[in-house]
Amino acid sequence: MCLPRTPLAIVTCRRARLLAGVAVVAVTALHAAAAGAQTTPSTRGIYTCIDAQGRLLSSDRPIPECSDREQRELGPTGTVRRVITPPPSAEERERAAARQREQAVAATREANERRRESLLLQRYPDATAHQRAHEAALQQVQSTLEAAQAYAQALEHERERIDEELAFYRRDPARAPAALKQRLAQNAQQRLQQAQFIADLQRERRRIDERFEAERHTLERLWSAAATNAGNDTAQQRR
Questions:
Q1: Which of 10, 39, 109, 179 yields a CA-CA distance of 20 to 30 A from 213?
Q2: DSSP states of 170-203
Q3: CA distance 194 to 184
């Protein structure tokens, strides 16, 4: 304790008390800082994984032995901060690339289909236009088919005339003229070719019917959607 008796002693005593107070504050601050450091948990994580031998490994950094498998980073309380997945293998990369290619092909196909539908709707804005186009396409084939059938009928009549001429040589076919035999062979070849041509035209007619039928189903959906959109636009304009 400081008991000053002279003015100089009083000043000295006051200075000693001031220095003592500063020392106490400094010590208190040091104790508080140390206590705070002890109570603040570490922010560094713990990495854990199961290696190829089935062992549970842990480390304060990513574990090299588990570079090919999943690792977990845990916080100080044991909660999972994140899951570290291994880099994809060559097989996984190839599968991912294949999926991307398939998605690209599907996207291209879808874009082409939308473009085709847009052009189809522009070409046939209503059912009447589509029906007229169907009838016109059939008429072209039908005209050719009728001409081909008429020619086939003419070839059939020619064969009958050749048969009548050959009837004179029925008892001795070897005596039939070579020119007559050649006409018969040519007629048979022409009738076969004409029959194939007629069959092709009939298939073309069926193909046209099938194409326009498929288009009609698509167009009915497009016409309905267009009518709905037009109705919505009209309603918005009235508002």
A1: 109
A2: SS-GGGS-HHHHHHHHHHHHHHHHHHHHHHHHHH
A3: 15
Residues 111, 115, 121: CA angle, nearest 5 degrees = 145
Is 126:227 a contact under the CB 8 Å cutoff? Answer: no
| Residues 57-114 pLDDT 10s | 999 999 999 998 999 999 988 899 999 999 888 898 999 999 999 999 999 999 999 9
Please tell me the pTM assigned to this model: 0.56
Contact 81, 48 (CB under 8 A): no
Gyration radius (Cα) of the chain, Å: 50
d(CA 41, CA 38): 8
What is the spatial distance between Cα 149 and Cα 147, in angstroms, rounded to a whole number?
5
Residue whose tokens read 């549970």: 56
**Exposure string over 40-52, b if 16+ CB within 10 A, otherwise e:** eeeeebbbbbeee
* E strand intervals along 76-127: 80-84
| Residue from 156, 130, 116 nearest 216 by CA | 130
Mean pLDDT over each residue of the chain, to the nearest integer:
84
pLDDT tens digits, 11-56: 455 555 534 433 333 333 344 444 444 444 456 789 999 999 999 9
Residue pointed to by tokens 């289909």: 113
Amino acid letter, residue 196: Q
Tokens of 122: 């522009």
